[in-house]
Amino acid sequence: MGQLAFGENYVQEALAKMEHLSNPEILWHFIGPLQSNKTREVAQNFQWVQSVDRIKILQRLSNQRPANLPALNVCIQVNIDCEPQKAGVLPEQVHELVDAALSMDRLHLRGLMAIPKAASGQHDPSGSYARMNTLFQGIIDDGVELDTLSMGMSADLEAAIMHGSTMVRIGTDLFGPRPDSGTD
């Protein structure tokens, strides 16, 4: 059957690929930072958004999701290492977004997503993965049904899986390094 789940960082590139591939069985995941002016296109064309980090974005996605489509699957992006250059909510803000997502009928909260600080001589991302898993399990323990902990990419997928990741992003392994696109 082949690869049926694709993640994209850029809306315009994704829309072109959707048109080119034109396969209704493909599940399209938006995984990049999402600006307010792109929410309509994402709500109308994607099945998943893994990078929700603001209530405003949740509201816009819910309001703009067509009634003829199933609820949009969403993950809340967590900035688990509190890096100022990265998107995502701080861990202490996650519960506010969880409550907001659960109140929106055109959204289906599936879980959490994170891009921890890369491994280096000074940093082992295992602690970041463990904190994400603890946060994820805590939300489940509060009675929220979640099934997706999206963390780990081509370079660190084994460590992420060892710490509970249920979804990894492996575009670099499949397609090679991303060329600089310069698009949205």
Q: Which strands sit side by side, in order, in the main sheet?
A: 1-2-3-4-5-6-7
- Low-pLDDT parts are none
Supply the helix-strand structural class: alpha/beta
Q: What is the assigned CATH homologous superfamily?
A: Alanine racemase
> Any idea of the CATH topology?
TIM Barrel
Range of strand content: 15-25%
Classified by CATH, the class is: Alpha Beta
Q: What count of domains describes the coordinates?
A: 1
Radius of gyration (Å): 16 Å
Q: Total number of β-strand segments?
A: 7
State the helix count: 7
Largest sheet: 7 strands, parallel
The arrangement of helices and strands along the chain is: EHEHEHEHEHEHEH
Give the helix proportion (percent range).
25-40%
Q: What's the CATH architecture?
A: Alpha-Beta Barrel
Distance between the termini: 31 Å
Q: Can you tell me the overall shape? A: globular
How are the SSEs ordered, and which strands pair?
Elements: E1 5-8, H1 11-21, E2 27-30, H2 39-45, E3 48-52, H3 55-64, E4 72-78, H4 94-102, E5 107-114, H5 126-141, E6 148-153, H6 157-162, E7 167-169, H7 171-175
Parallel strand pairs: 1-2, 2-3, 3-4, 4-5, 5-6, 6-7
